[in-house]
Amino acid sequence: MGLRMKLTGKQIEQVRNALLSGYPDKADLRMLVRIELDENLEAIADGENLRVVVFNLVSWAEQTGRLDAVIQGAYRQNPGNPALKQLAQDAAGWGAPAPSTPRVTTAGPASIDVFLSYSRQDAAAMREVQSVLRDAGFAVWTDEGLEPGTPSWQAAIAEAIGQSQALVVLLSPTAKVSAWVNKEISFAQVHDKRIFPLLVAGEPTTAVPISLIDVQWVDGRRGVRGAAADGLRPALARQLGRRPVAPSTPVPSIG
Predict the structure, then answer these.
(1) CA–CA dist 68, 224 (Å, integer)
(2) How far apart are CA 229 and CA 107, in angstroms?
């Protein structure tokens, strides 16, 4: 039986980085999928940027219960790769298989549901939101594991935003003055993406950028996890055409 547990953000990062270390070329990754999964890569994981493709492959494997096959297959093909060896060892201790939240899928390959934009100083809040949304069955992209400012980082962000169905941005005083948070917002707006702001710190006057002044935001200052569950989750479910995964309550506060 394949792993169907919900991975943490750190575990996802480990799987992605290990796969990238063993398969730095899309052709090699395509061969892995064909041999170990009997699937065509383009049919199950959308994208041109290798990091985006790997993210979507992991999302697909997690949702379909094939994650263990990906991990063990990658290690079997690359037994001398230390990252894949460590991943195979760690994955064996990630716990018993657990039910996965059913996801409404289309006939197409897996792609990114939500791009999560945040300041590095708000990383703890980001992980709370990521956990809530992933538990709800959304494929959530973050730039964890990428080196900020590098060409590969910028290319991955551009494709991830372009592929995503919505952008969730964590608002705070540090995020408001972050050049890249503002660039991600602007890029999402240019691509007509729906933006869902969540206020995690500060006051509206110090945390809400002018580009989002007319966009409703959820107040998460009294509890990020609760605000993400009660405010963001049902709103995203409606936006993405998903069936609500849990009873929702009114949004705690709207700016």
Answers:
(1) 32
(2) 28
With contact defined as beta carbons under 8 Å apart, do 200 and 231 qualify?
Answer: no
The predicted pLDDT at position 237 comes to: 94
Task: Say if residues 89 and 28 touch (Cβ distance below 8 Å).
Answer: no
Q: Per-residue pLDDT tens for 87-111?
A: 999 998 886 444 444 444 445 788 9
Determine contact, residues 85/75, Cβ cutoff 8 Å.
yes
Q: What is the DSSP letter of 110?
A: B
Q: Which two tokens stand for residue 43?
A: 């049919």
* Sheet with strand 218-219: strands edge to edge: 140-141, 114-117, 166-171, 194-199, 218-219
**Distance from C-alpha of 120 to C-alpha of 116, rounded to nearest angstrom:** 12
CA distances from 83 to 17, 55, 161, 196, 229 (A): 8, 17, 28, 35, 34
* Rounded Cα distance, 45 and 59, in Å: 9
SS (H, E, C) 89-108: HHHCCCCCCCCCCCCCCCCC
Residues above pLDDT 70, as percent of the chain: 85
Count, residues in the chain: 255
Q: Report d(CA 26, CA 49) in Å as an integer.
A: 9
**Nearest residue to 132 via CA among 19, 46, 253, 218:** 218
